[in-house]
Design a protein that fits this description.
By secondary structure, this protein is α/β, with parallel strands linked by helices. The protein has a single domain, classed as Spore Coat Polysaccharide Biosynthesis Protein SpsA, Chain A (Alpha-Beta Complex). It contains seven helices and ten strands. The longest helix has 13 residues, at 107-119. It is globular, with a radius of gyration of 15 Å. The N and C termini lie far apart (33 Å).
């Protein structure tokens, strides 16, 4: 079993608008991200909300996701990762950390990463685009305790660096793994 955790608790301060609810195709950015995961081989989708959780929750209420509200979201990204991990199904063999502002990552790419995880003997799987590492990242459940120890506004980068020998980089032909929608310029260029 593989659980996916979508991090979408932030204030979108660089954007100036709540980016999760900005229009994207037939819905919103967050709906596209969730739909891509729901339509993938991921067994469970956990949505971590924080800032304006109620507003985002109304938009995704009909989605097959487990919603977790992180009251400590202002203390950094690590608190959202921890909130998501605490909701992961006990049968999970791995967790995929996805970002709530990367709607360009389709379900086929997600499936490829999951397949690479299952077919290789590596505990961490990370996509790369022209040699640049991106998201989503899969961590074997053996890294859960290390992820639960994260502090501040950091993700799993140090864990990946400390376990380079156990990391599989998967080259992909999707710049979306390296692009998140942080500014209006990002939004209009990728829409």
């Amino acid at each position: 079993m593989l659980s996916s955790i979508v991090l979408a608790a932030g204030k979108s301060s660089r954007m100036g608008h709540l980016k999760q609810l900005m229009p994207w195709r037939q819905g919103t950015i967050i709906e596209q991200v969730i739909d891509n995961l729901i339509n993938s081989a991921a067994d469970e989708v956990i949505e971590v909300l924080g800032y304006r959780a109620e507003d985002i929750g109304k938009v995704i209420v009909n989605k097959s996701v487990k919603v977790v509200v992180n009251p400590d979201f202002e203390q950094g990204l690590s608190t959202s990762i921890i909130a998501g991990l605490n909701a992961v199904d006990s049968r999970a063999q791995a967790v995929m950390i996805a970002l709530g502002d990367q709607p360009l990552i389709d379900s086929q790419l997600i499936d490829r990463l999951i397949e690479e995880f299952h077919n290789n003997n590596k505990g961490i799987v990370i996509p790369t685009y022209h040699g640049i590492r991106g998201h989503p990242v899969i961590f074997a459940i053996k890294y859960k305790e290390k992820l639960l120890e994260l502090k501040g506004d950091i993700g799993g980068r140090q864990i990946i660096e400390d376990h380079a020998w156990d990391t599989l980089e998967v080259p992909v032909n999707c710049e979306g793994v390296c692009i998140d929608v942080d500014t209006l310029n990002d939004y209009f260029n990728k829409q």
